[in-house]
Amino acid sequence: MTSTAIEFNAVLKTFRDGEKPAVDRVDLAIEAGTTTALIGPSGCGKTTSLKMINRLVEPTSGEILIDGRAIRDMPVLQLRRSLGYVIQHVGLFPHMTIARNIAVVPQLLGWDRKRITERVDALLDLVGLDPDEYRQRRPSQLSGGQQQRVGVARALAADPPILLMDEPFGALDPITRANLQREITDIQRKLRKTIVIVTHDMDEAVKLADRIVVMEHGRVVQTAPPADLLLRPATPFVASLLGEDRIIKLLQTTPVERLSELGAEVEAQSPTIGLEASMHHALTVFLQTGAAQLSVENAKGVSVGALRREVMFEFASSEQRNASCA
Ligand SMILES: Nc1ncnc2c1ncn2[C@@H]1O[C@H](COP(=O)(O)OP(=O)(O)OP(=O)(O)O)[C@@H](O)[C@H]1O
Ligand SMILES: [Mg+2]
């Protein structure tokens, strides 16, 4: 069963009278335990939307609910304890050790020293930093990517059900970024948080999110799971964000199972592919082997059907046509 963790009802934010709203009547329902990516150009209202969830910014009108309760009526401290927040540009306290940075919220909550120490070490482990090596350092003695990991650890410290992340991997090299993305996916698999992540990067959104919310000029222009967004961008603007390699991304998000002919005969000696693999992986196998069909196997390695090369090409080319009419 799913339940709505965060809801925006006609949320509007105008910073100054007479100016165009930064966030313009946004409606949004975010399911518990899912990852939602907010994406759009600079200045479209992503950070403002996120800040309204933890009341760093108050809406001009409309309301935001968490677990069905209007946050306007909640004590701010209680609200913020249920939210982990990774701010844009990290924002670690420079004069404090890594351990103390991570422990900020547990300390506010009055945890005892032993519990805090254990928690800090567990979190450093979780984000892939050796506690013995990093616990006593200062932020300036860490690389940018390591600091961003600490930012994520700090947000997770009090085990909040909701995690808000504002460009947590901005300005990182592609390899570090990919590593951190993988860690977030792992963390999400283990902990099942409700995550809202702001990003500029469509690849990141496609990789991490269950749903992508595309914003433009303060408005939501499309909300959809990555595969649907790739298949049917609602406007030319969304299509342009998806980029030239939309088809590749589509193949990455389409499981082999979707295009397989289950129960179909397979030629002996056909290369194999897992049901759960992506069509992008299948494309690689087709290219490497030159085969016309693959034997599709279930998790036990038993052949359950066939994947034909033409089916993949038809799928990709029909999607290409859809894109050009969009
Ligand atoms: N405190 C503020 N006072 C006045 N205007 C603001 C304030 N904060 C944001 N804005 C304006 O609101 C709009 C949305 O800003 P916001 O920070 O939400 O954008 P963003 O989508 O996060 O952009 P970026 O990708 O550059 O971080 C912008 O036009 C910005 O100038
Ligand atoms: Mg921002």
What's a quick, concise take on this entry?
With 326 residues, the chain is of the alpha/beta class. The protein has helices spanning 46-53, 76-81, 98-102, 104-108, 113-126, 131-134, 144-156, 174-191, 202-208, 226-231, 236-242, 246-253, 256-259, 279-289, 309-325; strands at residues 4-13, 23-31, 35-39, 61-66, 69-70, 83-86, 162-166, 194-199, 211-216, 219-224, 261-262, 272-274, 293-297, 303-308. The chain has 2 domains: 4-243, Rossmann fold; 250-325, CBS domain Like, CATH 3.90.1280.20.
Structure write-up:
The protein contains 15 helices and 14 strands. It folds into two domains: 4-243, Rossmann fold, CATH 3.40.50; 250-325, CBS domain Like (Alpha-Beta Complex). The two termini are 34 Å apart. It is of the alpha/beta class. The strands form three sheets. It has a six-stranded mixed β-sheet, with helices on both faces. Strands 2-1-4-5 form a four-stranded antiparallel β-sheet, covered by helices on one side. Helix content is 41%, strand content 23%. The mean pLDDT is 89. The radius of gyration is 22 Å and the shape is globular. It has helices spanning 46-53, 76-81, 98-102, 104-108, 113-126, 131-134, 144-156, 174-191, 202-208, 226-231, 236-242, 246-253, 256-259, 279-289, 309-325; strands at 4-13, 23-31, 35-39, 61-66, 69-70, 83-86, 162-166, 194-199, 211-216, 219-224, 261-262, 272-274, 293-297, 303-308. Helix 5 crosses helix 7 and helix 12 (246-253) packs across helix 14 (279-289). The protein binds adenosine-5'-triphosphate and magnesium ion. The site of magnesium ion has 4 residues, from helix 1.
